[in-house]
Amino acid sequence: MNALQEEWTENPPLEIIKTGLPPIVDASDFLSSREPEPRHLVDGVLHQGSMLVLGGGSKSFKTWTLLDLALSISHGQQWLGRDTTKGKVLYINFEIQNYAWQKRIAAVASAKGIQIEPGAIKLWNLRGHASDFGSLLPEVTSQTKESDFALIVVDPIYKMYGNLDENKAGDVAALLNGLEALAVNTGAAIAFGAHFSKGNQSGKEAIDRISGSGVFARDPDSILIFTRHEEEDCFTVESILRNFSPVEPFAVRWQFPLFSPDHDLDPAKLKQSNAGRKREHDPRKILKAIAHTTAEKGISVSAWARSVDMSRQTLSDYLPEMRKEGWIATSGEGTSAVQFITVKGKEML
Description:
The protein is α/β, with parallel strands linked by helices. It contains eleven helices and 13 strands. It is globular and about 65 Å long.
C-alpha cells in the first residue's frame, strides 16, 4: 500500500466510509422493491450520481467541451446533439486564470444563446490552490454536500494528483474511489477530462487511448473518447457506457467555441500517423525483429520497442499500419496487452 492509500485508509474523509459496509441481502428481497432509475443528465449517456470521463489528446478542446456540458445541463440545453435534464452545476476550475475564464464562459454562453441564470452554475476557481486528492476531496465534500448539485466538473483532474503516479493502478483507483464517494455523498454526477498517451491513437482500441493506468478507462460509468478525424478540426466520438445501450460512434466538428455533430462525416476515418511525413523505418524490418519472440506469449509494445532500439512512441506510430495490413493482432487490454504476429504477417516476412 502506498502513502496515498495509507493516508486515505487511516484518515477516511468521507462519511460513506464512516458508516461501514452495507449488509449482504438476499436476491429475492433485493428484487422485491425496484430502485428508480436515476435521471438522465445527458440522455442515453450520463445518469445523475454517475461518473463521466472525456478522453482526448492534446488540444482536443476538453475544457471547452466540459464547459459546454456544464452550461448545457445548468440551463437544460442540448449537448453534442443530446437532450439534457436541467440541474444545478458546480465547475471546479484548477487551471484557467479568472480573466480568461470569464471570456470562455461568455463565449460558450453566447454561442448557445444562454443568458446565465443566477444560481444555475457555481464556479470554484482554485488556480494556485491545487493539492493531492486526499486533502482536497474532504473540502470539496464539505462545501458541496448540502448544495443539491446535479453535476460537479473537476478540471483538470491531474491537478488533484499530488504525488500520485497515473501509471499505478492502485494510485488511480484510490483517486477514482474518492471521486465516486463524492458522487455518493452529494448525489451529483462527476465529470472530468483525461489526456491520451503520446503518439497517434488511431490504431488503438478506444478504451486504450487514455494515458496512464487502465483504471482511468474502466472505472467511470460513462466514457466519451474524442479522437482526431482525417478531416481538419473534426473528431470521432466513441462511447463506452456501463449503464446505457451502446451509442454508435459519431463525428463532431469544432466551430469555436463549440463542438457540433457532423452527420456527413464517416466516424471511421480517423487521422493516421504517417501522412505527410518522411518514413524513418521499414515496418517489415520492425516486424522481422520480433518474429521469433511472439510464437507463444506475444510481446508488449515496450519490450518490442526495446528490441528494435526505438522509443515506444515511435514504434506506436507504425502499429496502426501493421494492424490495418493484418500483420499483427493484439491480445489483452491496457497494460497487459501483448502483440502477436499473424499468419499473414509470417507469410509476409
